[in-house]
Amino acid sequence: GQGTNVETSNKTPTLSGTAHANSDLTVYLNNKQYTVKASVDGGWFFKITEPLGDGKYDYKVTEKTTDGKTNTFNGYFIIDTKAPTNLTVEVEDSALGNATIANRPDLTLKGKTEALALVTIAVGGITYQTKADTQGNWSYTFDKNAFIINQPYNYTVTASDAAGNKISVNGVFRVDTITVAANIDTNSNSGDKNDNITNVATPTINGETAAGAKVTLVIGGKNYTTTANSDGKWAITVDSLKDNTYNYIVTAEIDGKKNYASGSVVIDTATITPTAELDESSDTGIKHDNITNNSTPILTGQAEAGSTIKLTINGSIYTDIADAHGNWSIKITYPLWEGVNEYTLQAEDKAGNFSDILTGHIILDSKLDVPTATLVESDNSGDQSDNITNISMPSLTGLAEPGATVTIKISDHIYSTIANTDGTWTVQVTNPLNEGVNHYEVEVQDNAGNTKNITGDIVLDTTKPTLTDVKIADQIASEHDNITVQDNPVFTGKVDDITATVSICFGEGNEKHLVTVGDDGHWRYQHNSPFTLGEHQFTVEVSDKAGNTSSSTYDFEVISPEQVPVPLDEQRLPVEIEGAALSGAQVELLIDNELYSTQVDSTGKWNILTNSYTPGKYDYELKITHPSGETITDKGKVDITNKPLAIDNHHESLINTSAKVDDSAFIHSALEDVYINHQEQE
After folding, report:
1. Where is the Bacterial Ig-like domain (predicted)?
2. For the chain, which terminal residue's Cβ has fewer other Cβ atoms within 10 angstroms, N or C?
C-alpha cells in the first residue's frame, strides 16, 4: 500500500503505523534497513536516530505476517527546517497613502509570504486565519463592525509553512473613516415603528453621515444616490416595491473615506381576514355550530402571524397577538347573555394593514325545558292517559327542543331520534316489550350540550278481561233463566278486573251504556226505559285499561204476570202408584187420610191413581190381603215429587204366600216393589 506523506522540521522524525499483530516489519530508508516488531494490537513505530538533512526521503516498509504472507508499504516525508523568508503586511486601500490607516470599517489586511503558507492574524484578542495562494499572496477582510473607528489596534501576523516553520510580523493599524447610519423613515414605517415592516410600497430610507458625503443606496436591484446635507442628514425614497423582504446597503463616501450601513425592510400590503370559532373546550354539544352552554367561552382562530386581534362582543373589547403559526385565542371574561351574541373581529398586521371586519355570533343556550314522552295515540289503547297498552311494539312520542337528540332506553334497548323543527319526536319500539311494567328513560340533549332526563313506565297488558254470572236480577225463577215480568229489569254480572270499563247494549248497533263496577267486581244496570213484552237481546262488553276487550250476548224475555208458570214445587198433580203382589190379592192404600184400593191382576201387578197432591212427604198405610185371607201391612212416609220413582225389585215373597217372612223385612221389601209416579196435569 501507500503510506501517509508529511512534512516536518524534525530531523529525527518517527515513522509509525499499523500492521498485523505480531508481524515482522523491515523499514528501508536512506539505503539502510531496520527491523521492527508489531505489537499484539498491530501498532508499530520506528524512531530515526541519525539526523537527516532537509529534503525529500522515500521509504518502504515490508511486513511478514505470522502465517507467512508478505505486504509492502511505500511512502515519503520531507525534512524542512528553514522558516519562510518573506512575510509582508499592509492595509488595502489605505487612507492618504498610509499603509496602516484604513478608510473603511471593513478593512482588509494583505501581503506576501511563502506559497501555501498558513497565515494567522492575532488582533484585539481574536485570532483569524487565511492561506497564501500558490504565488504566496494572502488577504483577510474583517467585518465592518470588528473595530472601533479611530482607535489603534496592534496585530501580529504569522506565516507557517507545511513543516511548521514560522515567521511573524508585528504592526499597528486604525480605521479612519466616516460614520453612516440608515433606517426606514418613521412616516414610512407603518405599524410597529421598530420592526421595519411597512405597508408603504415606496418607503423612504434615511439616516446620517458626514456632511456633504455622497450616499448610495442599493435596494431591489436598483441604485439610488444623494448627498448628505450640512447636518449630515440624508433621505432617499425608492420606487414602488412588491410585497417581499428586501435587504439594502448604504454607502457613504467623502475625501476617500468610506463606510457602509445595511438593513432590511419588509413590504407587506396584503391583508388576511382572520377566522374565528369556539374553542373545542367551549364548543359544547354539536361541534362547529357556534352554540354553547358555556357563558364565558374561548374563541380561537387563524390570522397573519404576529398580527393583533381585536374582538368586540357585547360592548367588551378583547385583544390577542397571533403566534408564529398564526394561532390566536381569546377568553371571554364577561358572561354572555342567553341567546344570540353578535361579535366583530379585526386583525392588524405588523405592517399596519387592517383586515376586513369579520362578523359572527355565539349562541348561548344554557337552558333546556323538560321534555315530554307518552305513547302515541294510536298505540295507547284503552285510556289515552295511562300509558297502558296491549301493543307489544308501540311508539313513544313527545316534545323536546327542536333539533335536540332524543335517546330512549327501555327494556335494555336504546333508540334515538332528532326532534323536528316544531319539537315533536316519535320513536318506534322495535323489540317487543315484556308483559307487565316496562320502565323507560328519555334523555334529551340539545345542540348546546344541555341535557334533561325523564323517566316513566309503559305497561303491556295483552290479557282480555273475563265476564261471569251475567243475568237479570228480576227473573221469575232460576229454571226460567232471564225471564222476567219486570219491563225495566236490573241486569247484573261480575268482571275479574275492577278497573275495566263495562258497557251494555240492547240490540245490534244500539247505544252502549256504561256500567259502574264495584270494588268486588260486581256491576248492575237498570235500563232507563221499559222493554216491550217478548224476547230481547243484550250484549255486555268489558274493556281493560290496555284496550283488551271481550263481550258476550245474552237473550232475555219480558212476559206478563198472567204468563208466569206455576212453580213445580207449587203444582198439584195426581200420583200413580204401582206395585207387584200375588195375583188376586186385594190392595188398600191410605195416603193423606184418603183410601184407595185395587186388586192385583193376573200378571201379579197392581196400579192406583190418586187425587192431586203438591210435592212433599205424606204418611201412608199399605195393606195387601191374599185371597186366602193372609194380610200384610206397612206404614211410613212417601216423598211425592214431579219426577217418577221406579223400584224394579219384585220380591217373590209377595207371590209365595207360604213363605214365612219377618214382617219388618217384608214390609221394607214391599215398599221397594212400589212405583210412585207424580202425573203432570194436562
Report:
1. 7-81, 98-177, 181-269, 273-365, 368-462, 473-558
2. C
